[in-house]
UniProtKB/TrEMBL annotation:
Keyword Oxidoreductase belongs to the record: yes
One Pfam family named in its UniProt record: Bac_luciferase
PANTHER family given in the database record: ALKANESULFONATE MONOOXYGENASE, ALKANESULFONATE MONOOXYGENASE-RELATED
Domain Luciferase-like: 15-232
Annotated protein name in UniProt: LLM class flavin-dependent oxidoreductase
Organism: Occultella glacieicola
Keywords: Flavoprotein, FMN, Monooxygenase, Oxidoreductase
InterPro entries per the UniProt record, alphabetical: Luciferase-like_dom, Luciferase-like_sf, SsuD_RutA_monooxygenase
């Protein structure tokens, strides 16, 4: 299983070092991917711009939106152009994880109907395929001759059906290894019914904090980000890996569950967190 690391683009104190220095260190350490989390009505860094900055200072590491809230990009042709441009700038390293999101305020501030987001997303997936295939004149042409690598966020039936029809697999965020193990049979069957070749890819997302202030970091970042969930936010804070043993247990658990990649997202924007995590993962780059 590959092990990636998130950029701290949603951590409140993020700055240039949390993107540029972080990206360089992550590539040097041997992580497989840099991930971003999408949100609109929040003081975070926008994910495509963050990944473009990371692309400029790296050469090998994948660049993964995990996830981008597609229906908020109301001009789907522009979204296609942006993603194709980023795929070119990174020389084919973009992995586009997309979903609808679950925070109504992101849609309200955009003047969009939260209840229509699923239907909008389905239309976008069809339209993006046409743009990426060069049928509409929106370019540049894909670097590798095919669209950017595409993942659908979620683990429910609609996400599985979208993945089987349009994408290369699923990305499952904030769930334990059991969720991957439970989703894989349905995804594999949907893949077969859709007549797809090969096997679908599955990526998982978890949080971590390491060092002497790990508990405080997790509470500050995740409590702020997920505060709207009330008591459930405490479960998310409690589920973050805050020591080396828990990090290793997550890696072992997701490997056993059948995940192809685990992206560990930080709760601090200090680039030293890259080195702290890498020190606990001797398998990086192997």
């Amino acid at each position: 299983m590959d092990i990636g690391i998130g950029l701290p683009n949603t951590v409140p104190e993020v700055n240039r070092a949390g993107i540029i220095d972080w990206a360089r260190r992550a590539e040097d350490a041997g992580f497989s991917s840099l991930g971003t989390i999408g949100r609109l009505r929040y003081g975070n860094y926008e994910e495509l711009i963050s990944l473009a900055a990371a692309a400029a200072v790296t050469e090998r590491i994948r660049l993964t939106t995990d996830i981008l809230l597609a229906p908020l990009h109301v001009n789907t042709a522009m979204l296609a152009k942006q993603t194709l441009t980023l795929d070119h700038l990174s020389e084919g390293r973009l992995v586009l994880g997309m979903a609808v999101g679950g925070r109504e305020d992101d849609y309200t501030v955009s003047g969009l109907d939260f209840r229509e987001r699923g239907r909008v997303f389905d239309r976008q997936l069809e339209e993006l395929g046409s743009h990426w295939a060069g049928e509409t004149g929106v370019g540049p042409a894909p670097v590798s001759g095919r669209r950017p690598h595409l993942l659908i966020g979620g683990q429910g039936d609609r996400a599985i059906q979208r993945a089987a029809r349009y994408a290369d697999g699923l990305t499952i965020g904030g769930a334990p290894p059991d969720a991957v193990a439970q989703a894989l049979p349905a995804l594999t069957e949907a893949w077969r019914v859709a007549g797809r070749e090969g096997r679908p890819r599955v990526v998982a997302l978890s949080y971590y904090a390491l060092g002497p202030n790990a508990q405080e970091q997790a509470r500050h970042d995740l409590g702020h980000y997920y505060g709207f969930l009330g008591d459930y936010a405490e479960m998310i804070i409690g589920g973050a890996a805050k020591d080396a043993d828990t990090v290793r247990a997550l890696v072992e658990g997701f490997t056993a569950a059948g995940a192809d990649e685990l992206i560990l997202f930080p709760t601090s924007a200090d680039p030293d967190q890259v080195d702290l995590l890498a020190a606990e993962l001797p398998q990086l780059g192997n």
